[in-house]
Amino acid sequence: KDLIKGRVSRLSAEANRLLAAVSCSPRPRALAFFTAVAGLSGQVAEQARVELDRRGFVRQQLPPLAWRAFGHTLAVDYLPLREAALASLRVEELKVLHARSARLLISRHPSTTDLFLTGSGSVGDRAEELLWHLSRAGAGGEAVEKAWEAACAAVERQQYTRANALLKQLSELRLSLLAAGHSIERPDECSIE
Which end of the chain is less packed: N or C, by CB atoms within 10 Å? Predict the structure, then answer.
């Protein structure tokens, strides 16, 4: 782990920011998404991507021609590298990255399109990814909504084990919000057709 931390610490500040943005995502996304999360643009973003690629820190994939305007898709597959990149951040910095990711997903920015990444992009997948980012950004109320939405979508897909795990996460989020003195509305029923 010390070797990996040392390699991460030798990155430029911009490459470090891009690596952190990629590392905080639970799935591959377009370069345009991660550069927006990292607050990078233009040539600086491209130089950071090249630096990460040269060092073998990210997995890159060229999307189909129709999606190439958003750049390569990026992912960090090696868990110790992901952990080292995130460990180098202060808690507040990490929350900011998750909040920016959630805002981009909520805005449905074109770089959030999932079609060329997973072939799915279903409501449940998007809700789970939003849950991931919102809960880590400290946006508990919004995370509760997304946990419920994702659990309902899992039930609709007959993924009952996944739905159960999401409902457990929902309960934990609700309990933490209640313990902090927040009031919580009861969610509507899942509408399964």
Answer: C
